[in-house]
Specification:
With about 375 residues, this protein is α+β, with helices and mostly antiparallel strands. The protein has 11 helices and 10 strands. The chain has 2 domains: about 80 residues, Phosphorylase Kinase, domain 1; about 240 residues, Aminoglycoside 3'-phosphotransferase, Chain: A, domain 2 (Alpha-Beta Complex), CATH 3.90.1200.10. The structure holds 2-acetamido-2-deoxy-1-O-phosphono-alpha-D-glucopyranose and magnesium ion. Magnesium ion binds next to loops.
Length: about 375
């Protein structure tokens, strides 16, 4: 049955009269639409939230609302515009932060922020510097949020949990794809210990747990026309973990000279100048609260999250493409190889990356 998007949009407290509802963007997880209204009324973002991944959705929406309200209060105190510098969740007509349809699908709406740009790549150091400041500012703004968040994604960036999933999926091998990817499997196995050693420091508290975004890829940030970060979006994954996840995931996307699913691997590498610019912006906003251990592992976090992404794409490929939306049969494998090329490039430049972090850390 075709989903009646207008009917769904009408379940929310919107201003104005709906003109049209149409698909927006290319998210891998949720389905996203824009609700256009007539005249001067605002536009809205409508999302079908993926209940197979985020669970329970009502708790996720509560998390998002807590974070948004916290940021809005700070923005107001600083004389900013809370409707542009933070996401605004629009409740359903019954006051809930989501609407559950007859097919048990969860929908949520937020205000569309006009005159912004979302980038797929950081083409210039200036943009990377602004992105670093934006993510750093976000972390700094939520660093004193006292209200607890529900962990709706247990184990999200926890490599021990990912290895558990990995072992299960390799044992099942539902489509018999395992035999075709023995090189790729070795990429994962060879680095297992290194990754677990890092994660142990998070588990034993040597690296602190703080509120973090956990999905800081470049297109989850809205820039204004001047090139500054206006607002961090896609807050579905906000939870308590290490803030290094955010630095690492940003570096995975900002520094990549190719696409996440690049077929021509000669195009994929880590751009050290972009790394330098992002790190500078990020540390300008976060150096005041980061501990020496967090500084020490900043560069490593880029390798960690990129490695995790190689694992997640490969695991989804072997599992039969159940998690990420794919455009072709081999899409997850293409993504695996492209992310692995990026990981290798980071490994080659690791010493330089550490030097950059150290240079800014001592400023
Ligand atoms: C997903 O939802 P989106 O496209 O912003 C994924 C991230 C991955 C990313 C890979 C909840 O992000 O963890 O890094 O794809 N989000 C979830 O591009 O799994
Ligand atoms: Mg997104």
């Amino acid at each position: 049955m075709k989903t009646d998007l207008i009917k769904i949009a009408l379940q929310f407290q919107l201003d104005g009269t709906i003109d049209e509802v149409k698909p927006l963007g290319e998210g891998f997880i949720n389905d996203t639409f824009i609700i256009k209204t007539k005249g001067d009324s605002p536009s809205y973002i409508l999302q079908r939230k993926n209940k197979n991944i985020f669970s329970p959705i009502p708790a996720m929406m509560d998390n998002i609302e807590k974070v948004c309200q916290h940021i809005k209060n700070k923005v107001k105190q600083n004389g900013g515009d809370p409707l542009r510098e933070a996401m605004t969740i629009i409740p359903a007509v019954d006051g809930k932060l989501y609407w559950l349809d007859e097919e048990e699908e969860y929908w949520a709406v937020c205000l569309f922020i006009e005159d912004t740009i979302a980038y797929e790549a950081a083409k210039t150091p200036d943009l990377a510097f602004a992105g670093g400041k934006g993510i750093g500012k976000f972390q700094s703004l939520v660093s004193d949020l006292k209200e607890p968040l529900v962990n709706i994604l247990p184990g999200f960036h926890d490599i021990r949990y990912r290895f558990k999933q990995w072992d299960e999926i390799l044992a099942k091998d539902p489509l018999g794809r395992k035999a075709m990817v023995s090189d790729e499997i070795a990429w994962i196995e060879n680095r297992k210990e290194d990754m677990l050693n890092f994660w142990k420091l998070v588990e034993n508290g040597t690296i602190p747990t703080r509120i973090s975004h956990n999905d800081t890829k470049i297109n989850n940030i809205l820039f204004d026309k001047k090139g500054d970060v206006l607002c961090v979006i896609d807050l579905d994954t906000v939870l308590s973990s290490t803030v290094l996840n955010d630095f690492g995931d940003a570096m995975r996307t900002y520094t990549n000279t190719g696409a996440e699913d690049e077929v021509d691997l000669t195009k994929v590498s880590m751009d050290l100048e972009i790394f330098r610019a992002f790190t500078k912006g990020y540390l300008e906003e976060t150096a005041w609260f980061l501990t020496p251990k967090e500084f020490e592992y900043l560069a490593f976090s880029a390798k960690y999250i990129t490695y995790e992404q190689v694992l997640r794409f490969l695991m989804d490929y072997i599992d039969g493409d159940n998690y990420y939306k794919t455009k072709s049969k081999e899409h997850n494998l293409v993504r695996t190889r492209a992310q692995y090329k990026l990981l290798q490039s980071m490994e080659e430049q690791f010493e330089e990356m550490n030097k950059i972090v150290n240079a800014f850390a001592t400023l």
